[in-house]
Every structure is written in C-alpha cells, then in structure tokens.
Amino acid sequence: MRSQLAGAALGEARYNRGSAMNIGKICKRQVVTVTARTDLVAAAELMREKHVGYLIVVEPEPRVQFGRPIGVLTDRDIVISIVARSADPTLLTVGDVMTREPVMVDESDPVEAALRTMRRMGLRRLPVVGARGMLVGVLSLDDVLDMLAAEIGDLSGAVRNEQRIEGVLRS
Questions:
Q1: Thinking of the domain 20-170, which architecture would CATH place it in?
Q2: Domain residue spans in the chain?
Q3: What are the Cα distances from residue 2, in Å, to 40, 99, 145, 161, 171?
Q4: 129 phi, psi to nearest 5 deg
Q5: What is the pLDDT of residues 68-79, one digit of tens each?
Q6: 37, CA 20 to 30 Å: which among 47, 71, 74, 118?
Q7: Residue 27 and residue 29: Cα distance in Å, rounded?
Q8: Which of 68, 98, 66, 67 is CA-nearest to residue 81?
Q9: pLDDT value for 58
C-alpha cells in the first residue's frame, strides 16, 4: 500500500512539473463579436442581451467561425466617447468608436505572459487568436482568477492527501 500511494503521488508530481498552463486551456470560447459596420446602438443592445461589456470587432473571413480581430468595443468606450459627449449614437457605427489594433495573445502562450501583458497595458480582457491570427476566444481576469482558485484548491488537497497518506502509513 505504501509504495502505491507514494508512486501515485510521485507520478502526479512528474506529470505536472514544468507544464505551464496555456491561454487556450482557460479562455472562453463563446465570444460575442460584431463588425466595424455594425450600428453602435445595435452593438449596445447586443451587450445588454448577452450580458457582456466587451465586444470583439472582427473582419469576417470565409469558412472561419469568428474572423480576424481588428478592434474591440467596451461599454466604457460607449459611455466616455458617446454618452458623456452627448453625441448621437444612432449616427455612428462600431468602427467610429472601437479601439483599433487591439492587444492580442496567442492561445498557445502561457497564462503568465498574458498576465504580464494585461498588467503592463492596464487591460482586463484580451482577444485570443489561433492559427493564422483568427479569433478563437477571449481571456479575462475572471478566467485567470478561476484558474488560480482551482490551483489553490489543489494545494489544499495536497495537504489533506498528505495527512491521509501519513495516516495509512502509520497505522
């Protein structure tokens, strides 16, 4: 019994050692997108309907689910650029307000690299791209916090497991 428990514990340690979590494993794959030609009011309505404050603006491409990201639009962009200036949103498109050339990360990048980028640029969300620069998801600080909470749960499980193994070995 002792060798089985010790072997299992060592096997897990060997399996996890040196394998950095990549962005593709934790990002959200359900992304809400619009095009630059979308009416701004329609984009705001989509935000309300989907309960999101972040839309990724894409250039649609044939046979690709989402397309290539060319910008992002946040609820804050709408408030600061349009509402606070008393501009008429019915006269504008997403392309008039969006942040162009957004900072993006590759789905194969390690989470640590994304966090450094988010901190350096003051961003809470990043579009995630895959092959040929096509959109595959979005990474948010919430996704990272969920991952970290799971890791902390694993750590507390290690302590409980250590106590269980010690109890078996000492009985």
A1: Roll (3.10)
A2: 20-170
A3: 65, 59, 36, 13, 11
A4: -115, 155
A5: 999 999 999 999
A6: 118
A7: 6
A8: 98
A9: 96
